[in-house]
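Hi U.,

Before I forget, here's the chain from the pilot set. I'm dumping it here mostly so it's searchable later in email.
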Amino acid sequence: MCHAIPPPLQPRCFPVLVCTAATSETSFLAVTVPVDLESIPASFYSSGRNTTEGSDAQHRKKPVMGKYAAVETAYIDADGQIEWTMATASNAKGNLPMFAQKLGLPGAIAKDVRLFLSWIQTVDNGQIVREEPSTS
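Structure:
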């Protein structure tokens, strides 16, 4: 997850592994764990390729690699409302003080949830892999 942050701050990347599982027809669980990508040269940002191949000045800035972890559950209740519960921890690192990070976190989470809900509506049901639980 990479975010362009207004100058004078540098862009932030939060390399993560996201594991998801449907817990029923109307609910899911997502676990996000931080990953160290700085040793993987194929990554656009962690390899520094963005500094020469970025599409604009903001994308060509060297990003700060932050840390992010979360556990989320979401379900649709009987009224069709979505209940989303999330526990998260993050550190954007760099010159962004922790008190400022904590002030901005609730708005960033709400924005990310809205982006996810918009994106998931574009996913074709045929692309969703559904596995039946093992009975053995």
